[in-house]
Amino acid sequence: MRSQIRPRKRFGQHFLHDQRVITRIVDAIAPTSEQRIVEIGPGLGALTLPLLTRIATLDVIEIDRDAIRELRTRVPDGALRIHEGDVLNFDIGSLRQQDEQSAGQNAQQMGRRLRLVGNLPYNISTPLLFKLIAQREHIEDMHFMLQKEVVDRMAAQPDTAEYGRLTVMLAPWVAVESLFDIGPGAFRPPPRVVSSVARLKPHAQPPFAIHDLDVFSRVVAAAFAQRRKTMRNALRGLISEDAFARAGVDPGARGETLSPAEFARLAGEHDPTPADNS
């Protein structure tokens, strides 16, 4: 039976309904009974119900009270642990610290890192990704539906049109894999863009060192502010000519040709000047 709940623009809702797409997403996640799965923005349960055919219990984070009421009518008692609220303000780590005696809790799952899934609202996807990355010690992996344009930038390689600030800022923390695209017709209402499913997996060990995250962020932002500029010009006043030499980076190169590790080396050679500290 089709729900009478209408998607809300302020929550960025586009409800997934294509069963073939849903099956493909769940197969890509491949949940197993001993894992702790957390769904962000379950909406009306398009992914929730198929996930619950493979696992006994599921945590969901949902801001829409109408959607929560609908979920309660569709899901068997005890199968869902519903956390009402804005995911941008939610402490993912708290889910690993729940009391083993809480209702429906599987003691075998306690302490395990979380697997996150969801159809992320486009209007909060980027800030949410970085909030989750900041809590990555609690996360095994993430499977998210996002705008294809965003996923292409997340997973891009150097010296491509899609490669940019987002790519480099994600690289120290997670490996990103674009899995497959989803057309607008799979959602209600159809979005104006194509979506993609991405897999993000936190690195077990950092692939390169970040000495100062603020400096790294400033270097990356400056390098991509005007993509046609050489690094020498883009980073003037931030990175000295000597620092380029110490980092082994060509100052005549453009930012889009540098690897994330090269950005990290440049940022590591940054020497604060009096002007920087003013």
Secondary structure: elements and pairs:
Layout: E1 15-16, H1 19-29, E2 36-40, H2 48-51, E3 58-62, H3 65-74, E4 80-84, E5 114-119, H4 125-133, E6 139-147, H5 148-154, H6 165-170, E7 174-182, E8 187-188, E9 195-202, H7 213-225, H8 231-234, H9 241-247, H10 260-268
Parallel strand pairs: 2-3, 2-5, 3-4, 5-6
Antiparallel strand pairs: 1-8, 6-9, 7-9
Helix pairs in contact: 7-10, 9-10
Index terms:
alpha/beta, two-stranded antiparallel sheet, single chain, 10 helices, 278 residues, seven-stranded mixed β-sheet, 9 strands, 18% strand, elongated, 2 domains
Q: Quick gist of this model?
A:
The protein has 278 residues and is α/β, with parallel strands linked by helices. The chain has helices spanning 19-29, 48-51, 65-74, 125-133, 148-154, 165-170, 213-225, 231-234, 241-247, 260-268; strands at residues 15-16, 36-40, 58-62, 80-84, 114-119, 139-147, 174-182, 187-188, 195-202. It starts with 14 loop residues before the first strand and ends in a 10-residue tail after the last helix.
